[in-house]
Write a structure and sequence with these properties.
By secondary structure, the chain is of the alpha/beta class. It has 2 domains: 150 residues, Response regulator (Rossmann fold); 59 residues, Orthogonal Bundle (Arc Repressor Mutant, subunit A), CATH 1.10.10. It has 8 helices and 8 strands. Helix 3 links the parallel strand 6 and strand 7. The relative contact order is 0.13.
C-alpha cells in the first residue's frame, strides 16, 4: 500500500486565555469525523491566491469564514472565528506564518496548512505545529487533498496532546511521534494511519505514552542501522 506521502509529490507532508482573548473549547477531533466539512480561514497577502483557494474550497463544500492579509489579521480572525483549518502563507507581513502557527497551536490548537513557494521551510513549519503544506504553484485539485490529509494528522496530534501537560510538550511529543510514524511506514510499507495505529497499540501494550513508545521505537531503529 502507498503511504500518505505518495498521494502527490506536490502536496508536502507536512484552552485558556492569551493577550485578553477568550479561547473557546473546540470540538474533540477524535469524536468528529474528518469527513465533516470544515470552516476555513485563509491567511495570504497575495491578492490572487486567496481567490483560487476560496473557489476550490467552496467547490468542495468548505466554508471560508475570512481572509487575512497580515499575520496580525490572521491571529485576530482566528481568535474571532475559531476555524477548524487555517491555510497559512509563510511570508505574511507583520508576523510571519510560522510564528502565527506557533501562537495558534499554543492557544487552540488549530489545524494549519502552510502555503509556500519554499519547500525548504517544511521542517520549521512542522516544528511550529503545521499539519501539512501546499507548495506554490499548486494545482486546484491538490487543495482539498492537502486539507483532508492535514485534518487526519491533526486528529492524531490531538491524541498526543491529550497526554502532554502543556502545548510545548505536546509539540515535542508530536515531533517524536511523527518520526516514529515515518519509521514504521518505511519499515512495514504502510500508510500513516496504519503506522499510527500500530504505535498506539504498542503504547497500550507497554502501558506508556505515545511519546515514550515513539522515542523507544526510533531509538531501536537507529541501533539497527548503526
Amino acid at each position: 500500500m502507498c503511504r500518505e506521502a505518495d498521494v502527490s509529490a506536490r502536496i508536502a507532508v507536512a484552552g485558556g486565555r492569551r493577550q485578553g482573548y477568550k479561547i473557546r473549547v473546540r470540538p474533540n477531533p477524535l469524536t468528529v469525523s474528518v469527513a465533516m466539512l470544515a470552516r476555513i480561514v485563509i491567511a495570504e497577502d497575495n491578492w490572487l491566491t486567496p481567490t483560487v483557494l476560496r473557489a476550490e474550497l467552496e467547490t468542495h463544500g468548505y466554508e471560508v469564514v475570512g481572509v487575512a492579509r497580515t499575520g496580525t489579521e490572521a491571529l485576530e480572525l482566528c481568535r474571532r472565528e475559531f476555524p477548524e483549518v487555517v491555510l497559512m502563507d509563510i511570508g505574511m507581513p507583520e508576523i510571519d506564518g510560522i510564528e502565527v502557527t506557533r501562537l495558534l497551536m499554543e492557544e487552540g490548537p488549530t489545524c494549519v496548512v502552510m502555503v509556500t513557494g519554499d519547500s525548504s521551510l517544511s521542517q520549521a513549519s512542522e516544528e511550529a505545529g503545521a499539519m501539512g503544506y501546499l507548495v506554490k504553484p499548486f494545482l486546484p485539485d491538490e487543495i482539498g487533498a492537502a486539507v483532508e490529509m492535514a485534518r487526519e494528522r491533526f486528529g492524531r496530534f490531538q491524541e498526543v496532546r491529550a497526554e502532554a501537560p502543556d502545548a510545548h510538550e505536546a509539540l515535542y511529543a508530536w515531533s517524536a511521534v511523527r518520526r516514529a510514524i515515518k519509521a514504521i511506514g518505511d519499515r512495514d510499507r504502510v500508510r500513516d494511519e496504519e503506522a499510527f495505529a500500530r504505535l498506539r497499540q504498542t503504547a497500550s501494550d507497554r502501558a506508556v505514552t505515545l511519546r515514550q513508545a515513539a522515542e523507544a521505537l526510533v531509538a531501536g531503529e537507529a541501533k539497527l542501522r548503526s
